Amino acid sequence: MRRRQVALHARAVPAAFDDAAASYDALVAADPGYHRHLRASARRMGLPGNGDGLKILDAGCGTGASTGAVLNAAPLAQVVAVDASEQMLRRARRKTWPPSVRFAHCRVEDLAGAGEDGPFDAVFAAYLVRNLDDPDGQLRAFRRLLRPGGRLVVHEFSVRDSVRARAVWNLVCWTVIIPAGTAASGSSALYRYLWRSVRAFDGVERLQRRLLDCGFTDVEVRTVPGWQRHVVHTFLARAPSGNPADA
Q1: What terms describe the molecular function in GO for this protein (predicted)?
Q2: Does 65 reside within a domain?
Q3: Of 7, 64, 183, 230, which is the most buried if we count CB atoms within 10 A?
Q4: In a domain, 2, yes or no
């Protein structure tokens, strides 16, 4: 009997990641650029030295791939890694980490309630902003969590500005990501949501404008090599000096 496909919406994403947690690491490992691109974005934070004395928020850490990328860029930094998916976070905690890494199970919108109120020297948000109900509100919250001059790095898909990038994304999703994810997890819901959410998300110029409108400065964007060129991007921004609160 054919499985009925149920649309997955942003509020249900943490539960869907719970269901996919057992197979997630194996799936992303099949993409040779996945970890390499995360490490490249983390290095683009431009943190001084080895991160000694710095405090970094890894927002939406999943099973810890982004946490590892942050440590690769700043091995001595204090890292607070948060995620809304309990099962993804459980997988992350099973891995080997230095004492400077702390994991917290909460939605990024609830950071203050979890006692993680900064200030942070940097915020690293990989594949997160696209999944938020209120991206503007959360970007402003990140700005307030950063020390003056602190760096925000958003590692994210963005294909709306490029016909080629959209075509590549459609091809890769329907020939690789959705079939492989469905076979590994038994459901296509999360991977179909991934396909749809990337297609609907901000183009590069729109996300740059969003960051500026949310009070960040020095906004710039870089892409990555491989098939993900102009599909995956590093968006860089700074909290302004003084970091004033919203009026």
Answers
A1: methyltransferase activity
A2: yes
A3: 64
A4: no
**CATH number for 109:** 3.40.50.150
201-235 pLDDT, tens digit each: 999 999 999 999 999 999 999 999 999 999 999 99
Question: What is the residue range of 56's domain?
Answer: 32-159+201-238
- Interval 83-109: pLDDT, tens: 999 999 999 999 999 999 999 999 888
Average pLDDT over residues 20-29: 88
Q: Is residue 178 part of a domain?
A: no
Comparing 97 with 247, the larger pLDDT belongs to: 97
pLDDT tens readout for residues 167-203? 999 999 999 999 999 999 888 999 999 999 999 999 9
Judge whether 70 lies within some domain.
yes
Tokens representing 121 are 């020297």
- pTM score, whole prediction: 0.92
